[in-house]
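Action item from last week, closing it out:
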Amino acid sequence: MTGELDETQIRGIEERVGYYRSLEQRKEEVIRLLDEQGNLTDDLRREIGRAEKLTDVEDIYRPYRPKRKTRASAARERGLAPLAEYLMSFPAAGSAETEAEKYLTEDVPAVEDALQGAMDIIAEDVADDPRARGWVRDYTRRHGYLSVRARDIEQDSVYEMYYQFKEPLSKIPSHRVLAINRGEREEFLQAAVEVDAEAILSWLHKNFVRENSVTADLVKRAAADAYRRLIAPAVEREMRSELTEKASEQAIVVFSKNLRSLLLQPPVRGKMVLGVDPAYRTGCKWAVVDQTGKLLDVGVVYPTPPQQKLREAEKVFTRLIEEQGIEVIAIGNGTASRETEQFAAGLIRKLKRPGLAYVIVSEAGASVYSASKLAIKEFPDLDVSRRSAVSIARRLQDPLAELVKIEPKAVGVGQYQHDVPPKRLDESLSKVVESAVNHVGVDLNTASASLLSYVSGINSSVAENIVRFREENGVFRNRGQLSAVPRLGRKTFEQCAGFLRISGGDNPLDVTPIHPESYALTDRLLESAGCSLDEIGTPSLRGTLSPLNVEETAQKLGAGAPTLRDIIEALLRPGRDPREDLPQPVFRTDVLSIDDLRSGMELKGVVRNVVDFGAFVDIGVKNDGLVHISELSHEFVKNPLDRVAVGDVVTVRVLSVDIQRCRISLSMKK
């Protein structure tokens, strides 16, 4: 219907439409306010109509906006407006002082008071002029600097690189803006916008002062006051707000893209998994889950300090590996992960069992899930830490199905996500989760209510109703049965049906992303090609459908070419999971230490986080290494997300190791 626009483009359009609607709403409001004040003219109406930004509308309205008592309003009350008009008439002869004497009263006892009041009025008029404010704002944006200094140069902090720092407003990266903002909040830094004031004053004089006049110097002083007292502080606030807003949006984009990559990590199917939530004092909680994610057993061992009951832990894990047929040990990457990894690697070496390996799994948000109502409902008899072990094991088997149970912002794959507007972050991340779930599709007969609630059109109560219907009536045999689910009406069915899959059901098309409303078209396509539904996914069907001219066939069948192209793709690869095309996680059998690393070593690693300045890669030691943006490629990289994504398996070379600060510098350059 949209000419094959993708969802990112459509969401972009949705956001722009929202902005333009609010712009039009504000224009109407300003016109109404001006009309009520009796200040609306045809010129003002046209000027407001032409405005393309909210700031332009606000600049036009500024001179008419009701103000608190200002120096200018006090001067007007004292009758000094005509004197301000006299100064702005730029007479060639006479004396401003002589003219000012006419306005002396009890409230204005001296000539200096009269002239100062008149200059206050001029200063406010200049500051309220939309053209002046717009020019100063634009000049500051293009030529200004963000200047930062330390509140106490002697104090140690993580913000030391900003203790004497200056960067153009037009070039400062988003992550630095958010870091500086945080440094200010924590009272380590002071930041200000700096710009060449002389250039701005020169423009104001050129546009508001007529030379060779007896009042020119006074108006120049008023214009300088307008800039320093009224315009500059306001523009500085606007610039800081603009930088923060832009940086927040970028942080949300980074978080959203990282979250999508994390959600779409390939599932590790068909393996018995032993999930381990590492800890020191309270021991390592473990959980065994079968190939379907069903919990079989839980417990705790103490291979880490202070207990270090290695022999007992080995005994327990050996029994589980042999009795349950464990193939993978999934270890959470939190506290005591390093020691647990060493224990697992040592056990694997001892057992010499073919195919047995361990893998490090991100446990971000596992504790949030463990304490949630959902986890309590799912495992009422388990304590919080044991639920974490189950979550870690299941994350390996199907990251998407497990991660949707966690509040998206708790997943922690961003930069400065705690410094951005929470509501905007939540909205954006919820859309990402919804997009990922619908991209992959959901098995209607195994999906949890949490997963179903992210399917397009299905809310949490309908998701609960689907699960309840399934429990009471047995598995769904076809998509048509959805109409019997309470509160799942025709419109909801229209939205969700294509994303819900049924394996081994009555209709082979129910396992594909083909929507039921296109089943008749699919039948016509197969009939015209001389094929049947039984051939879906077979090489013979590929041989028949692949050579078809989609445009011509679509015309013949009275369908849209994009729809037909999607149908053909679905028929050739029914039940396809798009995540299967991605590289599997890195399975390890031995462990590395930061002390083992040497400059020039080549290693395989997994991208754990991508930020504006590079990517953090897990290479199997306790700390992730940083591939700086300049080391991602021999070519210029504008945005790290153009090169890598969370979950990517990459080959890296060690550049340097700082053991004292636990920092590892890596390169992806060949």
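Closing note: The chain has a mean pLDDT of 93.
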